[in-house]
Amino acid sequence: MTSDTDHSVHAPERTTARRPVTRGRLAFRIIIMAVILALLFGGLYAFNSFREKAIADFFAGNKPPPTPVSVAQATAQSVPKFTTAIGTLTASRQVTVAPEVVGRVTQIFFESGARVKAGAPLVQLNDAPDQADLLAYRAQAKLAENNLERARNLLRNQAGPQVTVDQNQAQLDEANANIKKTEALIAQKLIRAPFDGELGIRQVNVGEYVSAGGPIVTLTDLSNLFVDFTLPEQALSQIRIGQPVLVAADAAPGASFNAAISTIEPQVSPDTRAIKVRATLQNPERKLLPGMFANIRVVQPAAPDRIVVPETAVDYTVYGDSVFVVAAQKDGEGKEGYVVNRVPVKTGDRFDNKVEILEGVKPGDRVVSSGQLKLNNGAAVVPTEASALVPPQTVPRN
Question: Is the pTM of this model over 0.90?
Fold first, then answer.
């Protein structure tokens, strides 16, 4: 018999065997990667270095030419010192001409804005009734004088009493008093200038009735003016009577007028802690007028041996003041040239288009006085005038 048992036939399985990685092969791969990275980074570094050198060589061969500038030398000199203030000009003599009595204007003897002398007639008020009264009083005086003479003759001859003489004397005295009173009233009605000065705008017309004290015209003496200003109490030790004062006004740009302190208020204001000061100013050309705003500089003793430079040499910025100092320097080819260095400075007073330098510059330093806007630190320059620069070894230093 044949057995029904099935014999399963199994195909043999294929086994894939992995080759183990040795340590030597791993090290080799790491070395290869390191070499590749080194070559990459080295090439990149070399490329960047080459590019930077090329750019530097390009700009080195295309440097801008030196900038023309004006140069001035810092010098040591005396610097004037001032105490500054703000003041107002006032008239030394100013009045509003007005009549002392009422009356009607019959004559006007002046024009608005005219210059008059003291005693010059300005306005005549109607004095016809007063002139008539004057004639009457003079006649009364004459009659009283004659009666007095007759009474005295009678008294000497014992033909008349003393009382008659006394009565006639009283009548004569009364008549003379009335004459003087009327003459004074007539004089009051002829209004005259009280002093030399400039007349303002006329405020009356012929035929107009004016009251006592009514304005006719202003009269101002412009030959002398007062300059009124205040100073802090700390400045009291710095001022004295007769001290020179320089006055400037917007009405006369660029001009300075000489004055002198004439009055110092003998007290300090308790509110402002300031001292009132008055200076007297000669104004022969009438360039200044009362009421004008004035810049005051009280002259103080000058400070000796202070360093000054032209005002245009200082560059004023929000970061501080500075100047460009010129220095000699050789270029790459050995040629002499000049460069500028920006130097911070501390400035002091300004005067006559100059600036006092407190810090940063020494006497003899050469500074750029114009053309700073085109400069930066280390820029090459050439002065517009060759004589503006001197060899560095001849520059005096302190």
Answer: no
